[in-house]
Amino acid sequence: MKKKLVAKPLSYFLVEQLADQFAMPDLTLPFWGCRKKMPMHQIVRLEGEGNYTLFHFVDGSQLMVSLTLKKMESRLSPKFFARPHKKNIINLLYLEAIHPEHQQLSVSLVNGHRVEVSRRKASRFIKQVKGFQQELQLFDVAPTAAMAG
């Protein structure tokens, strides 16, 4: 597991391009008695807190909604979003690195967050990351060309 799976994080410009190419939809969220559309590609991570989900966006903002993480998971694109742990869902577009340390995997995201990967979900998560990176290469998005910018 010493091999580094993530070459370089994607730049914001590249994320925008990929969102267009893959036709990533907006996500409609309940917000203070109304509904608000949020671009799915701007979500870095979702964090479950009981019956609530805290969204972390690429601009640093956060939004708490009164829906469970399980309910939110069903609304997200499985091509882009992975659930490495029961309390977190991450957007693979913002994956910075995978850290295998002392039989415990964790990932770091471009916003500086670090999320543990549960042992039970580790092999499935790694397969999902590899599949995602292969898909990116089909779209001429070689990880080396996807330098942060």
TrEMBL record:
Gene3D superfamilies found in the cross-reference section: LytTr DNA-binding domain (2.40.50.1020)
Q: Which InterPro entries match?
A: LytR-like, LytTR_DNA-bd_dom
Can you name one GO molecular function term for this protein? DNA binding
What is any Pfam family matched here? LytTR
Domain HTH LytTR-type, chain residue ranges per copy: 37-138
Output the superkingdom of the source species. Answer: Bacteria
Q: What is this protein called?
A: LytTR family transcriptional regulator
Organism equals: Spirosoma profusum
